[in-house]
Write a structure and sequence with these properties.
- The structure is a single chain.
- Helix 4 runs parallel beside helix 5.
- The strands form three sheets. The protein has a six-stranded antiparallel beta sheet. A three-stranded antiparallel beta sheet has the order 5-4-7, with no helix packed on it.
- It is an alpha+beta fold.
- It has five helices and eleven strands, in the order βββββββββαααααββ.
Amino acid sequence: MVSPEVPRKAPAVSPGGTFAGLPGGVAVSHLSVYDWPAADGRCGGTPHLHLTCSEGYVVTGGRGAVQTLTASGFEETPLVAGTVAWFTPGTIHRLVNEDGELRIVVLMQNGGLPEAGDAVLTLPPEHLTDPETYAAATAIPADAPEAEQERVARARRDLAVEGYLRLREHPEELAAFHAAAARLVRHRLDAWRERWERGAAAASAATGIQLDRLAAGDAGHLEDAVVRSELPSARGKFGMCGRLDVYPGPSA
């Protein structure tokens, strides 16, 4: 149930059943994976998981891998130009940049939710006790000079790698990490539900409306056809896995 303090907005669907966002309510970004070396000698990004969003990669350049850790165990999937890889919520993932040139188009389910906090880094347990403690270890000051943002991004990456390597060594601690991650985001769930209703849920509902109209012999929604384009709203942003060019999207 959505609490009263969360504002309600009309779904982003026209009366004819046209959804305003990207297909399926996804989000898209361009990612240049970090080439910073970590404690284990591998270069790359910050290990983390998503709680409600699947993630997909379309590799456009370079060479590397995505390391994944789930209840089924550890895997490393090679990434080269042309690779399409994806994984579901709960998959701890870490991008490895093997040649310093790994470039990826990232597709995120439920556009708007990842940007609203649907990710938890694999920090050591003492940093996962409450949202304030977690934020102190992970927040990058948006108004700080670029060099300071990079220092903070790298420090939190190293801290997350420390926790991630511990989970790989002690997979019996994975359930406790999952529980801690769920507690950290509980206060966000009402806002996430509102974003989901306006995004991915609205995109699915739009198809249902169109099918109903076509079944009734009504093709009027085809007259609502539109073309949209966007440039990135930010370039080179310090993300979890690397430098990001991000797009706002109607549901962000």
